Amino acid sequence: MASDDAVAIQVAKRAGELSVITINCPDQTGLGCDLCRTILEFGLRITRGDTLYIVLSPFDSGVLIIDFNDILDLSTDGQWCYLVLWVIPCSASSNIHWTSLKNRLISICPTWSFPFDIDSSNQPMHSQVYLMKLFSTDRKGLLHDVTRVLCELELLIHRVKVSTTPDCKAMNLFFITDGMELLHTQRRQDETREQLSAILGESLYSFEILPANGFQHGFSSLPPQVAENLFGLELVDNELCSHSVTPDMKNLKKPDLNFDNTLSHTSTLLQIHCVDQKGLLYDILRTLKDCNIQIAYGRFMSHTKGSREIDLFIQQTDGKKITDPEKQEFLFSRLRSEMLHPLRVMIVNRGPETELLVANPVELSGKGRPRVFYDSTLALKLLGICIFSAEIGRHSSSDREWEVYRFLLVDSNDLPLSSRHAKNHIVDRVRRTLMGW
Q1: CA–CA separation, 163 vs 410, rounded Å?
Q2: Which residues span the membrane (predicted)?
Q3: pTM for the full model?
């Protein structure tokens, strides 16, 4: 693990002000993506402020962000990363555990030994997966309330199986890991039980945590037509081709991307202008990482009227520019698609029942997107919709793996699920919550 001074956090003194996270450590492939994922996992949004300059090392994902308005050129030595991020909670009601965040970020930072060789032994360990069994009386908003407690305890949800009995009892099975790596202790398990009991009260019938040895992500089997509609949501002729996209989504400004090979002898300039949204920087970095694109220098501009302007000087893994038109077109399509709809949301009929599907691409490292289950259940709770059953699984489509969240919804008088308008309203609300709009 890196030293304690590798990460410093200056917490905002008042609500609505920005907190500052400073990271100073050796570079490592995928570091920027991993850091942004963790910040998103803690319920924070990398926000706009003064003009920011982002420098990523030639070895891929080390990040340098400096608040210097007059700097004309920046570079790194390819082995060191210095990062400053201005962040704000995604929700005013969020309770951010800053000390835990610092410890998690430190655990991600690589160590080094003289003369500045990155310690290859500093690889992330696979956390023990646990099965948490929760049996309680069912009620509206139950699943989100449990999920919120788990997030606040830094218990990461990897798989869920939730069902409701005819007599309104809820059996919840959560496959989780502990960000603190303490769930094997009785004290940590007791803390979890106490926090859940505080919100469930006497409706909590039983609670148990067991090691889930041999855990594997479940496979989510979808009908071919449903899978095609869910995962085939691509940009065609500058328009969205999915019936599940509401008209106002189609009116949103599409991401503009441009490649320029005239400004640098060694790198291609990628200019991005897009709508601001939750996890934007994470989406860009994970896409470039998965496409084996290195970033030599970048500039993350302040937003104007809800948008972002980003300049990235990028290279191929061999250090050369991206001059091949086919490679440019592939990267253009992939980035544009990921920024416009990094999450897929739709409602389908499953016989007489109605099912909400939410999906996000899995990184090549096997990691999914943080807080998708949290945001999805929050949106349904705010809509007053009860969840009869829920599960999380993986689905392979074409050359990509997806994380699929499935919610079987209970019909209500306020939002009758037989109404097309109600279905569109649910999809729109869930998507907006996920995107932070």
Answers
A1: 12
A2: none
A3: 0.85
